Amino acid sequence: MDFDDFDERPQDVAETTKNASGGIEGILRAFDKAWYVGRGRASRRMDLLGDYAGNELFLIDGESLFQAVLDDPLLALGRENDCSFQILHAYHTLERILSEYTTRSTNFEIVFFYENRHLTLRTGDDPFVVASRTLARTLLFKHILKLNLPVNSFRSLVDHRWKDYENEKKPMFILMNDGDFPDFQNPMSAHRVLAQRKFVSDLLGGSIAMALLKGAEYADSKIITFVYEPVRQGAGSIFPPLFLRALATVQKDLETILQEVMPKEADLLCSHLRDHDATVDIENAQDEFITLISKRLLSMEVPKSAQPILASLTFVNIVHFLQLPTLTVQDRSQPSISIKASASQNICKAFLAPLFFEATRLLATAPYRNLPYDFDGRVFLTSLVYLSQESSLDTKVLLGETLASRVSRIWGAARGEGNLTPTLVELPAVAPWLGRPTLPGAVQGPSAGQEPAEPLQLLPFTNSVLNKHLPSVSRPSSDLPNTPASPQDGQAAFMQFGREGTMFSDTKHWHNQKSILPPHLGGDVKEQGVTPWVASRRLRKQQQFMFNLQMQAATITGATGSALKQVVIPPAGSNAKVTKGTPALEKKPVVKPPPKSIKKDKPVKLSSKQLLLQKIQDQKLAEANDNSKVWWKEKLLVLEGMKLEARVQELGNLLRNKRSDEEMLKLEMELYQLHLEVQRWVQDSAPSSSETRDKYSLSIMRLIKKMLDRKVVTAASKEAITTILILFGFERYLEGLFDGVRILDGASPSFKFVKLMKTRAGKPTPVHEFIAIKEGPIEWQLRMFGEYMDRSMDSAYDRRVPFHPDAWQRRVLDCIDANHSMLVVAPTSAGKTFISFYAMEQILRSSDDDILVYVAPTKALVTQIAAEIYARFSKKLDSKTCWAIHTRDYRINDPQKCQILVTVPEVLSIMLLSPPLATVWTPKIKRIVLDEIHSIGHQEGGSVWEQILLLAPCPIIGLSATIGSPKIFNDWLEAVQTAHGFKHTFINHPHRYSHLRKFYYVLDDAPPEFTSLSSHEVTGRVRFVHPVSALAFGNATLPDDLSMEARDTLSLYRALVDVFGRGKGGMDKGELERLDPNVFFAGRKDLLRQKDILEYEAVLKHAVAGLLAGALGGEPQSDTKALPSSENLAFEVISRLQDPMLKKLGSKLDVIPERGLFMENLIHMLADLHAKNELPAILFNYDRSGCEIIGKAIREFLDDAETRYKQTSPSWQRKLAQWEVWKAGAKERERQAAERQKKRRPGKGDGDEAPDPGASSGTATWEQSFDPNQPLADFSFVDQKSSYAMSELDQDIQKLRWGGKVPEWAFDLLRRGIGVHHSGMNKGYRSLVEALFRRGFLRVVVATGTLALGINAPAKTTVFCGDSPYLTALEYRQCAGRAGRRGFDLLGNVIFYGFPMDRVQRLMVSKLPLLGGGFPVTSTLVLRLCNLLEESNHAPNVVKAIDALMSLPRVSFSSDVGRDYLVHHIQFSIEYLRRNGLLNEEGKPMNLFAVAGHLYYTEPSNLALVGLLRAGILHGICKGIQANTDLEDIRVEEAKRVYILLMAHLFGRKILPSSLSENEAELKGLTSKYPSKVVLPPMPEVARISLERQAKDILQVFVGYAKAFATSKSQTSSGNETLATLPLSGAWAPQDRDDDTDVECPKLTAFLRQASTRTTIRSPFVANSGLQDGDFTTVQELADTVRTDIHLNAHAIPCFDGILASAATLTRDRGTKTGNPRLKTPPPKLNGYLYDFYIHGQAKTIVNANGIRSGDLWYLFEDFRLTLLTVKSALEQLLVKASVEALSARNAKNKKPMKAKKRRVKGDWDDESSDDDSDDGIIGSALDTDTVVQSELGSQDETLLNTDLGEGTEAETFDDEMPGAQEDFKRPTGVADADWAVYRVVSSACKEFDLKARDMWA
């Protein structure tokens, strides 16, 4: 459900469509305005795999796929008046696109809809274009069938076969085109687009989503594109009938137009599913086929003068058809031949168009469906020209004897005469008709088109560490310089000081000028002169954060549900004895070791003193026991005087008394509890009913199990338990249950246990016949006792932990002790928490210097882990702390002076790549814990996780609950850890501790008015969903982690019996009998355990999988796909497991509810949970705005109900009146109190107490605490039993109000027991919500996925509240896992609310996808590695990490590229960095490294900005701005505007959907209504030209890489046989090639080989269109068209293609005017939201006009603000460094000593002249910068609280104390005016954007 205002507005549709005019174009515009523009604005650009579909089945629309192939601007096919028909290139493009999906292990099928072919064919265009695309479509379809991919064809969406297919397969979405935007100059373009739009509209009206194929971005393991979610609001159309009838005529018009050019259309795609006729003799079929075509061509009516030409063309076509299979791919790479325009037009329209139509028609007929057909336009034309010029030669010489004979036979059959060839007059006549073109070979000779593969000359690079890994590149080329190229010819690079440039020193933070290292390690001195106001503010923030942390720590509980107790760990250097491997994770409960046999030693003789002390102790113990017995007997007397239910309640209170911890007393009290429970059953009004029997038999068995689990009972207890078990029929379990239980004799109870047995006729008989279980004990346990079964998995005592760990947990402990690296995969609640803290305690106990780094994916989890560490451990160290937090927006304690650092992956990556830390901090890291390691597959930031794993200097522990196919990831991780020298272990535990029970809430179409929580009656709309019933989804499989409760296994078995017990086929009687639980568990001597249920579940799942596979006749595999046919009895079993109400409603549930209905039912659902005691609950919604809307809606319902109650309730009004009367008597009470005070005797009690004006008699009254404005308990979800008082909440709210950053409605929600939690909320508020939820005060929290990633928020129930495209299989498991946390609940509830039922079923049977990943070694990472290596002076740990990286057999787990590719990639990345002035010859960082390195996550935009700075583009923008120019000057304002425009082109790029960006009318309407431009204006031309020049340089470098890599490959392989391979189908070999060297090659074949273009790096299939190695235009083109055996990842190369594509607005006909077919496709347009916001500063306009979702605003603006700040800081560092270097050089020249002079800052800018000759001035100016910045920003050495810039929240980032945002940077001496002007503009623009962002959240 979309909570933003981007959905279409049906109320506007009728009016919009009613006014549609202007024919089809008008209808299209009305359709888009009324519907499609809205859908486009509501679409989301997202990763299809990681963020959306995962492993779900989706479809690729074949027609859209073919459009992507045929619209490829490089492909020479279907161009008007161009004979080229290069189908080999089309095959390559087709397979390349499909390989993007197959290599990512996606689950897809290809579908074709016949009615959608018009966009592929371009119906209505030039007939030759239509004919070419028609034949190409057929040939592509024939080719796609060879790829072993599932392909299906349908006529339309109403085709019954499509309906059956959809119901069976249940695809999630279709990847297709939307028709784009029409070219209104083409008369039929609007028809084609409108037909496609109508198809999309019909599709989205159902349950299938659409994703755009055009514009999809393939980045690493991700596929990023726009996703359009289905509407799902019923079958009715939103368009009026008249408009629908107009739409229907469009398809008819297209069919009519197509019939005109192809009267006898036959489509192979419509017939391929029929039985194909087998072709017995391919050669005969080919001869028949070409004969029929030739006859058709020769029978065409043409002028007599043209008949010889027609005959010659037909003859050459026969030759071409028969010769083509003998040619290699390389032979067919023919250059284009220029012929007369009239001849080209005639060949295309009069000959090839009929030929193509006829070939298409014949290939669709039965005899020729399987016939291989090929046509190559350039080979045909070359053959035509050659034969026309060589017609005097004998045909056998030209063609070869075999081919000539076959041609003669076919030609004779076609012409009806026996002539071998056309007469001599015919072929010679063709040459002048063609214009006597020049043949390629006549000029170019035998080596035509061949280029020697000359390697690129590399700039010098000498690095002892890297060079030993890098490959050697062959001979140099003299045309390349030996030094880095200047950005512009004849012009030195800007921001460079001196000939060699400015060396960079990475010692400062990224967003400010603070030193990375503290002063004692060489950093800057601590700040001086902090103002009292700043100091006070910092102290308050310190105190507030620590208070919040302590509050969180107090609420965190351990695995047992008990509060954590802090362990004090002495310093390792002290004399305290440290025992390895005995951490005390939790002090309660104490786990005792199993009893051991003890040898009898000689008694120890005690001294008299010892004997006396022992006697005293024994007396005290006996006295205490006697006192307890007396206390218990007194309590028993009181209890016996109560009613039964009151006794039960009071006993529960007594059991919480500390006295009950005494062993004997505890045993007797529990026996009394059992006694009362039996009495309750006896006294029940209906003791014999099944409900009563179930209720009490369960409660009694739970008590018995609890008593026996203590392993000690009294003899009386044993007797009572034995009697009950015999009555229940459980006598066979007696021996097993009492095995190992200690029996205490001699202790008789203080009460008489209820009598259950009596003797009759000498036999014991039950006193109460109803106290029995009527079913077998096995079935009863499965049905009733599943939640309470023993859940341990081979647990045993282990001294290292205070609980009995399972076998897998003991293995984890062993690995940590052995210092192994580990990957631990275990579901939520399985017991992973202890792993991290055990490792932490080992570090703390073993050393005072060693460090453990805990990495969490979110800041919320960072804060919680820190709180838990605070609660668990205390260790006092000199000048250091036990723990610290470091995220991008705050630091708690000093990260460099702690033993446990809790951080986020981005920060750890920065620290690992920081040279100053490489020698003093990184070597101390002994363990890295990566929690939620599956985050490595996320679209944003995933590569950072990979970089950490590649560079980690120590063993790692990876933890996750949700990794699909974890072994694949683990294999790579093990290789990485082995390369680093660490042993690695993989531990996979698949079972949850607590079960999750799934429910579906059926919304009420007319919900009643909510009155109150106490009066609410359960609606019965929360319906149970059996796990196996979800298989009714259709194309369902059994996921590995599908689990069943014990009761679910029983219901499944009974369903099997119902279906197959009547003798139906599919399961034999023996198999069914083996599944009987009584048979399966026969022989059990103890109660069933969870481990037993898992074994039974596995057998049942195997049986179900076998049934599902039965229809396919396959083996019973768990992943076998189901066939939903009536014959498959498995679906009858599934049907019997479905809830009756859900089954009855059926497809009515497959819709998205209207928002009003969604909100109205919400309060009733929560009231149901309240009534059934299933709160607390977390309501998950993946829309931040949606969370707030839901929270406010709940509050509104409670407010309204309370208001109605107060207005109508007499009791409330009486109470209020009493309170008013009491309040009115306040003065009288004060007077009476004063009088009483006077009457007191003097001197007694004076001053002891103040008069109480609120009391009249000294006793408290209800009026004193009454607040009429406080929510009533009946209208609040606050837990009234919570220890947290409302007064405490008021205090906490007041603290949060202090900053004015939390909206008032959020406080109102807290008062009603409701919290809202998402990353946009204030951090303090989020912490309070988490703490209050853990304490039980809040019982409802509405949250996004922020609470799903490991946050300790135990809930009984999780509710998926509204669907979202971001709710994937992984997110579903993460969120669902919050319910039923270990230590709190044995069962968790999962409710789907407001969901379509088929979506619920899809999620339940979904499988976890494979982890996605990226190629982590980007050019920027290479730069940062060089910086790390050189700036750390080749630190040993750095050298080791780089050596390990370079030796990896596979650098990324998501790719199979090996070391050879990696070292070549690094070699040429270094070359690029050298040429861009970022590295010197030794690999040291230079110049603008800070911009490139610190903005690493934005590559390639960071490198583009570096290039623009070096090229002087910003200097040109700032030209004319002097040092004294006022910042308000119009020149400065214009420069800032252009700078922001340029930055918006590079950073924060968001592509607009074409439905909006190409719709001029819609854009005009938006821009006239709002101040936004919506579409980002073009990049300044000078900047675009500069980037184009840089892009060419990059292309040159990586073309050199490709050639070097190809040379390396050729040296290790024999011949070129691997060159001609396709991405999927592999090698392409000619069918009939004759390589016999003894036979002379036919002249025509020899000529074609001679004339062909040979390529070294470009695929020969692409060269089929005439493209060569020397004409690559972009890096993307290079990556797309390179040979398949050359690995080239465009995403890992600084590729500017995307930036340049949107840099200028191209017209649709630009390619036609320039003659460059590569520019025909209009580029994507960027959303101008950043630029627009900078101009007008209106956040609401950005939402309404620019279409940015309100929940995303702050994140987007904050990212851009950080980018601006990073650039500003980088320039400051460069200016200071350059000034110091200039000073050093000058002093060296003048031989003057350096002196430091500090001065104070004056004004906003330092306008001193740059030509000051004073050395002191130079030094002072350069050094003052650091002094000033330190003064403003504070020191890194602060150890309690240090707030950085970064990722706070919208409510808190823009603080009064913003480091970097307000700092005053002084101009260093020696800086040129031009450089200083650039800095002023950059800094001022940064400040202005920051201020506007502050105003937005003010």
TrEMBL record:
Pfam family of the protein (one): DEAD
Comp. bias (Acidic residues): 1805-1816
Q: Keyword Hydrolase on this protein?
A: yes
Q: Where is this region: Disordered?
A: 470-490, 1227-1263, 1787-1818
Cellular component GO terms, alphabetical = cytoplasm
**What CDD domains does the record tag this protein with?**
DEXHc_DDX60
Species of origin: Ephemerocybe angulata
- Source organism lineage? Eukaryota, Fungi, Dikarya, Basidiomycota, Agaricomycotina
Name the UniProt record assigns to this protein: P-loop containing nucleoside triphosphate hydrolase protein
| Keyword annotations from UniProtKB, A to Z | ATP-binding, Helicase, Hydrolase, Nucleotide-binding
Instruction: Enumerate the spans annotated as Helicase ATP-binding domain.
Output: 813-981
